[in-house]
């Protein structure tokens, strides 16, 4: 329970056996009253077993569906088990669970709350095509959602019952669908979206990519995904 | 003459393949019927390539063979798009199945864990009772 609400933390994980135990342990330590669901997205390592041993509930997909597939499973679990709030955090430890009560509080007046980098707290910077992609996404999505969104690809989000219900039925499994397209879809249906600044930490395991070619491809794909999301119903 | 033989034979071999696949139930009827329909049009054309020259002339295409080539490519493109569409639908179906499966497995695991703790608790309670009776 956080502020009288039943809260489920959903952690989509793919081959994260190196960091998942620490992430689950930290969430359970900081937030004793919440349930943690690790969605193992077809990992080939011991992610599911490690997460279960750390005290999380585990839903193991038989094969890899991508973050979107894992997240719809998480929201279906939240809906079926009657949770008031579902919060998504990354399995690599870059999201600080101490922000969770803040996100939950904001759900009183909003339907979807996003924990955003570059919004004042913490230090996090990107340059080049990746930065242009972020500027383009946040510019367009801020207009669509009628609220200031600076970090549209953040995987740190909190949803209330209405949005859980929607995401349990509809959640795209495509590339960037879990972030960009869900935002467009949610905003278009009149749900109130709000972002809060959060500090991000260094990943506990894994490395982010820095190749310029990959950054250009990312920009192109982000543009394509955004355009598609805008012309879809 | 030689060309007619080659094209005609190819058409007949394709026809035999489709019929055999359908006979062995390796091909769903909806696809089998599609290809049979195509072959019914293609085989006469392979035997008499001049058949479409009049139609081709009407559309401003010099040779009937060119028209067939053009229509063939358009048709194959449409088939490919249709197959992509079918695969997308299939992926959505298998995705839902995978999610259902994962939810059920999580539920079974949770129930088993609950049963085990319950069993452990009752055993412990029973032991405590025995001890207290003894004492």
How would you describe this protein?
The complex is a heterodimer of chains A (233) and B (135). Chain A is α/β, with parallel strands linked by helices and 233 residues long. Chain A has a single domain, classed as Spore Coat Polysaccharide Biosynthesis Protein SpsA, Chain A, CATH 3.90.550. Chain A contains eight helices and seven strands; from the N terminus they run βαβαβαβαβαβααβα. A seven-stranded mixed β-sheet of chain A has the order 3-2-1-4-6-5-7, with helices on both faces. In chain A, strand 1, helix 1 and strand 2 form a beta-alpha-beta unit. In chain A, helix 3 crosses helix 6, helix 5 runs parallel beside helix 7 and helix 5 runs parallel beside helix 8. The longest helix of chain A is centred in the last third of the chain and has 20 residues. Chain B has one domain. Chain B has four helices and no strands. The termini of chain B are far apart. With 135 residues, chain B is mainly alpha-helical. In chain B, helix 1 runs antiparallel to helix 2. In chain B, 87% of the residues lie in helices and 0% in strands. The mean pLDDT of chain B is 86. At the A-B interface, strand 3 and helix 3 of A face helix 4 of B. Chain B: InterPro entries: DUF2304 (IPR019277). Chain B: Keywords: Membrane, Transmembrane, Transmembrane helix.
């Amino acid at each position: 329970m956080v502020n009288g609400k039943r809260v489920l933390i959903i952690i989509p994980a793919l081959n994260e056996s190196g960091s998942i135990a620490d992430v689950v342990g930290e969430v359970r330590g900081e937030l004793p009253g919440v349930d943690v669901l690790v969605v193992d997205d077809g990992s080939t390592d011991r992610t599911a077993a490690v997460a279960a041993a750390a005290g999380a509930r585990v839903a193991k997909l038989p094969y890899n569906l991508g973050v979107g597939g894992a997240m719809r499973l998480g929201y279906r679990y939240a809906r079926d088990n009657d949770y008031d709030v579902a919060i998504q955090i990354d399995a690599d430890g870059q999201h600080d669970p101490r922000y969770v009560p803040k996100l939950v509080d904001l759900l009183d007046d909003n339907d979807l709350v996003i924990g955003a980098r570059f919004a004042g707290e913490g230090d996090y910077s990107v340059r080049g095509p990746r930065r242009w992609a972020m500027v383009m996404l946040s510019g367009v999505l801020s207009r669509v959602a009628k609220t200031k969104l600076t970090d549209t690809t953040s995987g740190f989000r909190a949803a209330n019952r209405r949005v859980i219900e929607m995401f349990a039925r509809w959640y795209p499994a495509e590339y960037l669908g879990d972030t960009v397209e869900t935002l467009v879809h949610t905003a278009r249906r009149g749900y109130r979206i709000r972002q809060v600044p959060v500090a991000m930490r260094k990943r506990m395991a894994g490395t982010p990519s820095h190749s310029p070619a990959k950054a250009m491809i990312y920009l192109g794909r982000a543009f394509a995904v955004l355009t598609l999301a805008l012309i879809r119903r | 003459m030689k060309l007619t033989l080659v094209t005609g034979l190819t058409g007949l071999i394709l026809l035999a393949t489709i019929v055999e696949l359908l006979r062995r139930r390796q091909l769903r009827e909806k696809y089998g019927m599609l290809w049979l329909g195509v072959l019914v049009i293609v085989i006469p054309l392979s035997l008499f390539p001049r058949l479409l020259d009049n139609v081709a002339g009407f559309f401003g295409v010099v040779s009937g063979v060119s028209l067939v080539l053009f229509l063939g490519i358009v048709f194959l493109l449409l088939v490919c798009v249709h197959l992509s569409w079918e695969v997308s639908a299939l992926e959505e179906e298998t995705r839902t199945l995978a999610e259902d499966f994962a939810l059920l497995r999580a539920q079974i695991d949770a129930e088993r864990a609950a049963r085990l703790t319950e069993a452990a608790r009752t055993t412990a309670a029973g032991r405590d009772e025995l001890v207290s009776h003894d004492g």
